[in-house]
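Z., the sequence and structure:
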Amino acid sequence: MSEPTDGRAPLIEVTGLTKTFGENTVLKGVDFTTGEGTVTALLGPSGSGKTTVLRSLNVLETPDAGFVRIADASVDFSQLPRDKGERVREIRALRARSGMVFQSHNLFPHKTALENVIEGPVQVQGKAHDEAVADARRLLEQVGLTGSADSYPSQLSGGQQQRVGIARALALKPQVVLLDEPTSALDPELVGEVLGVIKDLARQGWTLAIVTHEVRFARDVADQVLFLDGGVVAERGGPEVLTDPQEERTQQFLSRILSVG
């Protein structure tokens, strides 16, 4: 499990997370913690709230209520801030602790792979250009794109674009990497290359939170599995949740997913 055993506080702490879109309550009080250097996989049927949970961690979605902490940055969405500036500072601090990998890459089409990777460190973090370029080349090599630094997204396969997206997230040196269904937009033959990169990150000790339908991958890499259904965490545990689920809803979901996988 991802709960630290050495007396340290969890790296990620989420309590009472709720979110409503119109008349649809997507999150109904989600709680979990994540230890540093661990992998948390969020699984569940479409509409279960797993992507909303992930996007709430860096406030791409603003929760209606609940508490989110990553390392030393936190926001209590259940409490009104003293002023608007205070909430802006809290959100900026929280976002600075994470890097996001999206479903559909979200690369700048007019920038090369290298330029996409250095954008955040240079423009947001103020890193020196030469230092950012050196880091970006190292990261592109790490994700298997040594010869693609000067290629534009249109010249890359979907799997290569997603690997650029991973390098871009790592370039910010985040304390946690958030991956929102990173293989869902890929052709089946390209899924393996991206999952291989993510497995390498897990072996290197990165803290990862991943929304995925890749059950076998989650079973191999996750320290903690959260199964969401109807806006709540219906079952949680280690990877054994994916081989011996205790809840009937989890059993049904896994049976359906694995039968078509």
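The first strand starts at residue 12 and ends at 21. The chain has eight helices and ten strands.

Let me know what you think.
H.
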